[in-house]
Fold each of these.
Amino acid sequence: MRAFFTCVFAILFLLSCNYKSQTADVVFHNAQIIDCDGMDTEMAVSGGIAVKDGRIIAIGPSQAIRNSFKADEFIDLKQAFIYPGFIDAHSHFLGYALNKTKVDLVGTTSYKEVLDRIVAFTGSNNASSDSLDWIIGRGWDQNDWQYSSYPTRHELDSLFPNCPVAVRRIDGHALLANKKALELAGIFDLVQIEGSYIEGGEIILFPDGTPSGVLVDEAANLVLDAIPDANPKTKRHALIEAQKDLFAAGLTSVTDAGLDVSDIKLISDLHSSGDLKIRVIAMASGTQPNLDSAFAKGPWRTDRLIAESIKFYMDGALGSRGAALLAPYSDRPDFSGYLIQDSASYRKALSTAYDLGFQVCTHGIGDKAVRHILNEYNAVLGGTNDKRWRIEHSQVVTTEDLPLYASASIIPSIQPTHATSDMYWACERLGKGRIRRAYRYEDLKNILGMVPLGTDFPIESIEPLKTFYAATIRKDSEGYPENGYYMDQALSRNSALLGMTVWASIANRTEAETGSIEVGKWADFVVLDRNLLKVSEDQVLNSHIIKTVVAGSIVYSNGKY
C-alpha cells in the first residue's frame, strides 16, 4: 500500500499544479484508509477518496485529493477508519426479511417461552403476514433450554386446535407443527405408509407411533410446502425494510444462499427501481424447477445482482442431528444423520452447471456429507481450476479429506459465529476426539490461502463485527470462554478482515468490482470509529459504524438512512 500511495501522491502532486483540474461527484477526505488490496492490511494510511459515477477514480493524500478535484460534495471523515464494504459470503437475506413478519422465537430459554411468544403474536398480528390460517415462526433452539429434548405438539394442539402452526428451529433444518398443520401436510397418512423415515429426513414419533410434531430436514419441507408463499408485495416491503438493518451493520453486499428464481427476479426488479441498493449475490436453490429455469437463462449479472450460482443441500445441521456423519452421534449412538441428495441427480446437475458456467455451492456440515461433496466436485472439476465451487459451512472435516479441497480448488465457505454458538453442546454431539475436526477455520484457510466469511443470518446475528470477533477471539459476545474456544483454529485479524472483504468477493466471483478500495472498483465502503486490526479485544464489539457507502452514496450515517 505504501508504494501505491507513493505513486498516487506523485501523480496528484503534478495534477495539483492545475488546481481543481478534475471533477468528481463526491470526495471523502481526512480518513484513515485500510484498503485490503493485498495480503497485508495492517497499515491504515491517512488520505482521501474521489468518486465519480459510483466508482473510485482516485486515492491519495487528503490535501492532494482536495486540491485536484472539483466535487459536488466534500465529506470530512475526521480521521475515522475507512474499510472496504463488508461482504457477507453466506446469508439468507429474504429469509431474514420475511422473519420480521413472523413470530420471533430467537433467544427463547424454554418451550413455555416459545408458547408465550406465539400467543402474544397472535394477539397483535392475528397470524402470518399473508394468511390468517397459518401461524409461522422461527428461532427456537432446544439446546438452549434446561431440558434439551425436542418439544412436542400437545401444547400447541390445545392452544390452537383449528389453526395450523409451524415454527422452525433456529437452523431452519427442523420444525415443530401442531396437529392441524400436520393434517394439512398429509403427515399422519404418510407415517401410516412410510413410517418415521423419509429420504433425507425424519418424522419424530411418539411411543405410540403417531407424529410428535417435530420434523427434520426433508420431512420439515413437507409442512413448509403446505404453507402459502408470501405474496410479492409482502416480499418487496420486507426486503426494503430489512436492507436498513444490513446497512446499519456495515454490509454493502450479501450472498443469499438459496432462492427461487422468481425471487431473484424480484430482487433484480427492486434494484432496477432503485428501492434496493445493497448488492446481492443470489444462489438459486437446486430444486428441479429452479434448475430448469436457471439453466435455460444461464448465468447473469447486473451492477448490483450476481446470479450465476446454484445452491444444493447435502445434509442437515448438527443442532437437529441432521448432519451426515461418518460415525454415529456421540449422544445418539444409533444414528449418524443422512445425505439428502440423490447421487445420480446431483452428479448430472453438477455436470450441467459446469458446462453452462455456473458456480456450484453445496451445504455440507457433517464429515460424511463434506467427503461426498468433495468426491463429486473432484470428479466433475477434474483438477485445479478457477470455477470457485464452494462447500458451504465445511463444519466437520477429517484431516485426510483436507487435500481434496486443494486438488480441485474448492473453497470452504465458513461462518465463525457458528463455532461460538454451537460450542455449548457441540462436543456432546461429536465427542471429544471428533470435536477437534470441527470449526477448524485456520486449517481451512491454509488450504487455498484464503477463506470467505459469512454469518448465515438469520440463524446468527447479521453483524460482521461479531463475525470478526468470533473468528479471531473465538468467544461469544458475552466473552465466553475466558481463554477462547480452541484458539489454534483462530484466524488472525488480518485474515478475518480479508475474509469479510476481498476473500468474500473472490468466493463470489466479484473481486474485479468489490472487496477492496482500489481505483476502478465500486465505491463501496464502511466507516468505523476505530482500527479493528489494532484495538484491544474488549473494544472490537464496541466499534461503531459511522457511515455505510454503496456506489459512492451514503446509505447509512450515524443512525440515519
Note: Residues 102-224 form a domain with the Diaminopimelate Epimerase; Chain A, domain 1 fold (CATH 3.10.310.70).
Amino acid sequence: MARNTGRVLGVNGNMVNVEFDGAIAKNEVGYIHLGDIRLKGEVIRINGNIAALQIFEMTGGIVVGDEVEFTGEMLSVELGPGLLTQIYDGLQNPLPELARQCGFFLQRGVYLQALPNVDWEFTPTVSKGDIVKAGDTIGTVPEGLFTHQIMVPFDLVGSFTVTSIKQAGTYKTRDIICTVEDSKKKKLELSMVFSWPVKKAIRLYSERLRPVEPMMTKIRIIDTLLPVAKGGTFCTPGPFGAGKTVLQHMTSRNAEVDIVIIAACGERAGEVVEILKEFPELIDPKTGRSLMERTIIICNTSSMPVASREASVYTAVTIAEYYRQMGLDILLLADSTSRWAQAMREMSGRLEEIPGEEAFPAYLESRIAEFYERAGIVKLPDGRTGSVTIGGTVSPAGGNFEEPVTQATLKVVGAFHGLSRERSDARKYPAIDPLTSWSKYPGIIKQSEVNQMRRVLHGSHEVNQMMKVVGEEGTSINDYVTYQMGELLDSCYLQQNSFDPIDTSVPPERQKHVFAKLHRLMNTPLTFETKSDVRRVFNNLRQLLLDWNNTRWGSDEFKAAEAALDEAFKALG
C-alpha cells in the first residue's frame, strides 16, 4: 500500500503545516525529508487537507515545498525484553548507543532500534494447537531479576490458534518464535517484540481495583501521615532547591515495588546528568546490587525540542503499563510535569488556540487527568494483580501552589506532598510540609492516632507563630509544652537523615513501634514548674529518640536505647 505524502506549507518553531494527499489520522507519524535527513513528527491537528505536525527535532533548514512522508502508524514504542537498565530519550532512542554513533553532539534524524537484537534464553509456555488472545503469555525469558513474559501483541483482535512454537533455546530478540492463525486461516508471525501507541492506554485486564494497599516508601512522614497506595497517584510540588530530586532518589531506592521508571521531561541538563550519574551508583537494598538493574530512565532535557517532553511522559507510562501486564508493581516518577505543561503551552500558542489561565491551553486539566488516570491496580485475566503508581513532581514558579499546573494536578491525585521552602531553608528534610499536605489513602497507622499527631503539630505551629510576636516569655507553660511536643515529633519522626544508612530506610514494623512510643508520650499528662524544666526534659527526649533512630532495628543497641527512653518516660509519668 502506497504511503500518503504531503508538502510543507509553513514552519513555526517546532510546528510545521503540511498539505497532504489521501487520508491521515491524528497522532500519525510523518517524516520531513531534508536532503538525506528524515525529521520525525507527529500529527496533532487536521483541518481539511492541512495537517499540523509537531517535529521532535530542530526545524532549521526546512523550507516550503519540502516533501513529507506519512507512515500510517501511530507514535509508538517497542515493547519486549531488554527495556530494563536502558536510558532512552522521549522517542525511545537508546541514548548511550546514540552517543556512540553521534559523539558528544547528537545529530538530527538519527533514530535507532529501541531494543537490541541480542540472545535470550526462551522457554515456551504454550503448545501447538493452543488458543491464545492479545496479552496471553506464549513464553518467558530471564531479564535480570525478573522473568520477562513474552506476550501476544496487544493490538490483535479475537482468538488465535498456535500453529508453531519454538522449542526452549537461545533466540534473538527479533527472531520469529511463534506462528498463529486466526479464524480465517490468516497466519501471523510473532517475535519477542511488538509496538504499541503511546497515547493509548493498555486495557487488557479483567477488573480495575480500588487502590487500598499502602506502597511502603520507608519514609516516615509519607508512610505515616501521607501514605501512597499501590496503583495510586501523588504529586510533589515544590520550589527549586527544596529537595525534590533527593526525595525521588529515596523513594526509588526504598519503595516496595518491582520496577522504577524515571521520566525526566524538560529538566535542566545539569539535573538530568546528576540523575544519570547517581542512579547507577545507588544500591538496591533488596538485592545489594545496582538500582539500575530494575530501573528505566527516559529523559529529555530543557535544551531538547519541546515536543519531545510530551513524548517522554507517554513513553514512560506505556512501558509501565507493559510491565504491569506481567503482574508486577511499577513506580513511575515524572520530573517535572510543569515542564511538560510548558511544552503544551508553547505548542498551543503556535497552533493559535485560545489560551486559558496563564496562557496554558484550555485542555491542560484534561491532559493531566488523562496521564494520572493511567495509574491503577488491575486484576489480570489469569487472576494475578499488577499496578502502576504515578508520582509527578511540579515546579511552580516561586513555590506558588495556586498556579494552574499544580491546581490541575491536585484535582486528580490521591496524595499531595507539598515541599516547603521554609522547611528546606531550615534543613528539615524531607521538606514536606505536614500542615498543608494530605492523602486520601489508608496508611499503616490508625487514622485517629494520625489525626492526634496532626492536632499536636498544628497546635505547635500556632504557638510558634505567637512566640514570634510575644516571645517565649509571653506564652503559658502549657502552650510551651505543646510547642516543644510538636518540635519533638517533627525533629525525631517527620525528619529523616538520607545520609545515614539506618535512618534513610525505616521498615513499617519499626515505624509502628516508634509511633506507639510517641503516641504514648502525646497522651501522657505533663506538668512542669518552669519553662527551663520543659526545655531540659524535651532536649533530653529529643537526643534519646535521635540516638534510637540511628540504631539497627532489633539490635542490642536498639534495645538499650529503648530502655533508656522508657526510663525517661517513667520519670515523666
Note: The radius of gyration is 27 Å.
